[in-house]
Design a protein that fits this description.
CATH architecture: Sandwich
Radius of gyration: 16 Å
CATH superfamily: Galactose-binding domain-like
Structural class: mainly beta
Bound molecules: calcium ion
CATH class: Mainly Beta
Oligomer: single chain
Helix content: under 10%
């Protein structure tokens, strides 16, 4: 990680303030995260994520910062298994941080079946301002199956994205 990015991480870490958890559930939400407290990211795995004080409108006081380079995914977690068949989609607010001197790649978030990663739905993050992204397709998840959510940010070079109000919905 270059020195400028390391400095950015440290600054944003010190600015992170733990505040009351904001709940904006829809009726069909099976997972929602506004990344307001350290407990909100305790179930996430990976090597390049932390909380950030940059948020979209109605995003509370903090969001999730994910940074990645040649090792992907930068962040991942599993949910389930579910006790009934589900048809899932997901949506989130996200933005890429502009980092001087790197080749532009953006990021992507993928939701797939743990036992069949080819079955997946995905969004691509490209905007430098807070933007609402939602999957165009839906994923059928059989009962007893677990889902895997992974965030791949950048690749050939280091990139950083902010994520907030991440939600998985069931029909
Ligand atoms: Ca938030």
């Amino acid at each position: 990680m270059n020195p400028k990015l390391s400095f950015l991480f440290i600054v944003l870490l010190t600015l992170t303030i733990s505040c009351s958890k904001e709940k904006i559930y829809s009726n069909s939400s099976i997972y929602f995260n506004s990344f307001e407290n350290s407990s909100d990211i305790s179930n996430l795995d990976g090597y390049g994520f932390m909380m950030s004080d940059g948020t979209p409108v109605n995003g509370g006081d903090s969001s999730l910062m994910v940074g990645g380079a040649c090792i992907q995914p930068a962040l991942f977690f599993e949910l389930g298994p579910f006790d009934e068949d589900k048809i899932l989609s997901f949506n989130t607010y996200a933005k890429m941080l502009e980092i001087e001197g790197v080749n532009w790649q953006g990021g992507r978030i993928t939701l797939s079946l743990v036992n069949d990663r080819d079955k997946k739905i995905r969004i691509f993050i490209s905007d430098l301002t807070w933007t609402y992204y939602q999957t165009e397709n839906k994923l059928e998840v059989p009962s007893g199956e677990k889902i895997y959510i992974d965030f791949s940010i950048g690749g050939y070079s280091t990139h950083v994205a902010l994520i907030d109000l991440f939600q998985i919905e069931s029909e």
